[in-house]
Amino acid sequence: MNLLLLSNSSSEAGYLVHALPAIRELGQALPADASAVFVPFAGVTRDWDDYATLVGDALADLGWNIQPLHRAEDPVAALEAASVIIVGGGNTFNLLRELRRRELMPLMARRVREGASYLGWSAGSNLACPTICTTNDMPIVDPGSFDALALVPFQINPHYTNAHPPGHRGETRMQRLAEFCAASPAMPVLGLPEGTGLRVRDDGMELVGPHDATLFLGRREPAVLRPGKVEVSA
Amino acid sequence: MNLLLLSNSSSEAGYLVHALPAIRELGQALPADASAVFVPFAGVTRDWDDYATLVGDALADLGWNIQPLHRAEDPVAALEAASVIIVGGGNTFNLLRELRRRELMPLMARRVREGASYLGWSAGSNLACPTICTTNDMPIVDPGSFDALALVPFQINPHYTNAHPPGHRGETRMQRLAEFCAASPAMPVLGLPEGTGLRVRDDGMELVGPHDATLFLGRREPAVLRPGKVEVSA
After folding, report:
1. How far is it, in rounded angstroms, from Cα A232 to Cα B19?
2. B177-230, pLDDT tens digit by residue?
3. What is the DSSP letter of B90?
């Protein structure tokens, strides 16, 4: 498999700019005009056409031929033909519901297992996990089930931070993840801070970006993972 | 109906202390030894017995006879006999899943419609709404469906704030609620800040506490609701 799972898309530098070197590396074995499909379904307040334009512009230098999935006459054929599947962020529940309504989840998982590259950020990284149970998003729509693509055998929490607005009495992120770990004590969760991503290849994984990630598992003390080669196991 | 839906439980003053005057007012028509049931199922990292003790101690001065639902030999009989149903905060998904597993949701809704008083905070306030779609909690377990008690015909967002840790690129609360409003444009959402609560009686509603609430509906500009008599309609 050939995955790049990013925490976030935007930064001071511009949309996806911080991640371009890693995205380029993801695609280095592909032809310059590789067929890519962009999945915009996490967009809720953002128009899907506008979203596709934003992403197309951000990735223009790669030369990929990017087709937005909502514009494909035959979405199944588009995914079957794609060398790269790009899944953008937004609301994870909406993303999963739209893919499930179209019955595209098993096909997407198969295509990536067959060798299509997968680039996701935020909700797109949640989607690559066994379930969407570690999303930060509001459950604005019911996706029918929380099962996701299971491209990796652990959970990701994107935009990971333990910062908290002063005076706020709601749960901290660490408390929320501790709740997940209490409910699913054998499932690791990788907290990916802004600016980082996880590069997954058949022969191993690498934490990319300037920050450490945090690994949660059951009641164990959270572990710090440094950028570079990482292992995540239960 | 006789409801008190609080944003939060804890404050500098102590557990539920800020809400005691409103809770006392909720119970003023009840005998001092009224039968109450406490629902601890939103607790995930908190032991249910410990949780029941915490709540029992916090409400001791009211004189209610509080039975924790998880200790009831016959939960159906306990709810049928209760004059007050108390639903504590924690994780809304866990709360809903546990109630649904025990098939207690229709009974709880009926008891409150028949006249049992309802006191909820945080997840307990989410539960009183048509769905749990405006919870802030992480979806750590799948409740099977997002449908909730529908005691009020609108959604509540507890712990409402638009504060945001500096530098964080994830969604603000207002952006999350805007996504809900885009998906459900006819459903009002009441953002209840910390320290506030909504008092619901057959003849009207009142915002209690020292802060304004914010009302969201579709694409309309959010409206500010001042403490005192309020109306929420689509």
Report:
1. 44
2. 999 999 999 999 999 999 999 999 999 999 999 999 999 999 999 999 999 999
3. S
Query: Encoding tokens for residue B92?
Result: 């809304």
A153 touches chain B (CB under 8 A): no
pLDDT of residue B10: 87
Report A:33-62 residues touching B (Cβ under 8 A).
Answer: 44-45
Task: Report residue B137 as tokens.
Answer: 């909690």
Per-residue model confidence (pLDDT) at position B169: 65
CATH code of the domain containing A84: 3.40.50.880
Contacts of residue B223, Cβ cutoff 8 Å, sequence gap at least 6:
B214, B215, B217
Cα dist from B39 to B66, B67, B85, B95, whole Å: 10, 9, 8, 8
Q: How many domains does chain B have?
A: 1
pLDDT in tens, B7-58: 999 888 899 999 999 999 999 989 889 999 999 999 999 999 999 999 999 9
Structural domain that includes position B147? 2-230
Going by C-alpha positions, the residue among A88, A94, A31, A30 that lies closest to residue A58 is: A88
Set of chain B residues whose Cβ sits within 8 Å of the Cβ of A6: none
Q: Which of B116, B136, B139 is nearest to B189 (CA)?
A: B136
Residues of B in contact with A134 (CB under 8 A): 138, 140
**What value of ipTM does the predicted structure carry?**
0.94
